[in-house]
Amino acid sequence: MWPGMQRNRLVPVCGTCCSSGPGAPLWIWMFCCGLALIRGQSYYPTVNTHYGKLRGVRVPLPSEILGPVDQYLGVPYAAPPVGEKRFLPPEPPSSWSGIKNATHFAPVCPQNIHNAVPEIMMPIWFTFNLDIVATYIQDQNEDCLYLNIYVPTEDDIRDTGAKPVMVYIHGGSYMEGTGNMIDGSVLASYGNVIVITLNFRVGVLGFLSTGDQAAKGNYGLLDQIQALRWISENIGYFGGDSNRITVFGSGIGASCVSLLTLSHHSEGLFHRAIIQSGSALSSWAVNYQPVKYTRLLAEKVGCNVLDTMDMVHCLRKKNARELVEQDIQPARYHVAFGPVIDGDVIPDDPEILMEQGEFLNYDIMLGVNQGEGLRFVENVVDSEDGVSGNDFDFSVSDFVDSLYGYPEGKDTLRETIKFMYTDWADRDNPETRRKTLVALFTDHQWVEPSVVTADLHARYGSPTYFYAFYHHCQSLMKPAWSDAFMLCMLGSVWKSAEHEWNKGHKQKLTRENVSHSGPVRN
């Protein structure tokens, strides 16, 4: 059984403590829930680790059916990647004497949420609430490699041994985000699992690469691997089972999880992966032109671009704020700073690694939502009038031109896509055109990469589960006509516990629904 499914649902659902609607995203619900939880904190548990003792805080949840959760916040899992350690793999943290206070979040990794990337590369819930998001990332520091641990305190009578562990990799666009935005308390208590969130280096500081030994890149992925190493070594002290660790994430977080399953550096550090709305095969999962953007950054801050060693030495001397605030715009549907094929952490093209069976040691659950492609068509879609024929043709042409650099065959490709994504029984209906245009982007950016990933994983008989989420949710962050996308799913998954529990609510992802999806091949 997958962790968190002990009580007829894959993940917990709790109600509103804010005025947000049922489609509100994960972080809003957890923020509101967190406000309700801070009342009545009085017990401060301590726990040993390999590096020293930690003092956490026991937090009661605002629901009679949920037990309290011990929170250990701001736990260092790596040494500060500062000074000469910038643009290098993380190192283990130093030990400490006495008891370290772990009752407050640590700073987040340096980032810039304004003009960092094209809006189409950022989650809708992120861009819709930039002012609120900004409050979560005000405290920034390069010394940011910390994790947060949420431990349930009431044992499930069906599982009284060491608890399964779920490690959440936050999304974004590789340029922003923090594990601090996700409160794992409700999931931990309801699912009787230990939930862990973490910060990792993002953007320039997390993924800059010169394409050679001067700066190999993938520091953000290596941070995640170091966090998993710390968890594997220490989770037993918190009552967790190091042999039942599941890594999960959505969007860019899902791409990270997918890449972690392909890296030999991750071997033995986790056992299951949940890959939601993303894959290592998505066009934005891997940066295939890292040197181009690194040189552009170096030019902007006045560093030598002719010698990579000199360039990296110069970039290490620059203030982190100066680096992250540079406006480096990637090609459409791609990223400027993200994971790279370095021959080590990612030894080859992800699809080649999948074909070679590199990820067969993991059980994998993955899936998509029907309306994921909304983000890519917002600028041409009119919520009232649908999409005109001219706008449809332009969107398809722009899509082909942005993704396929070779000129040969472009005309044929454009016409083929138009033919395949035209509902010929209702070809003149602008609302139908709107629906098929969203389907085009959903299929290309999410469905096809996820289906191929699932097929390659299942090909060798490895346990592989695939879901498709179709529920039509209501949210201020999307037009009323649009179909389900990630915030719809996460909005109900991570809600606060104060709302009346309605077991019949259609938004809930239940064990029955998961069983209906069935394995791809088992």
Automatic annotation (TrEMBL):
Its main location: membrane. Keywords: Cell membrane, Disulfide bond, Membrane, Signal, Synapse, Transmembrane, Transmembrane helix. It is found in: Cell membrane; Synapse. This is Carboxylesterase type B domain-containing protein. The lineage of its organism: Eukaryota, Metazoa, Chordata, Craniata, Vertebrata. Residues 45-493 form the Carboxylesterase type B domain. It holds the Pfam family COesterase. It comes from Electrophorus electricus (Electric eel). One of its GO terms (biological process) is nervous system development. It is a single-pass type I membrane protein. SUPFAM superfamilies: alpha/beta-Hydrolases (SSF53474). GO terms for cellular component: plasma membrane; synapse. PROSITE patterns: CARBOXYLESTERASE_B_2. The keyword Transmembrane applies. Belongs to the type-B carboxylesterase/lipase family. It comes from the Eukaryota.
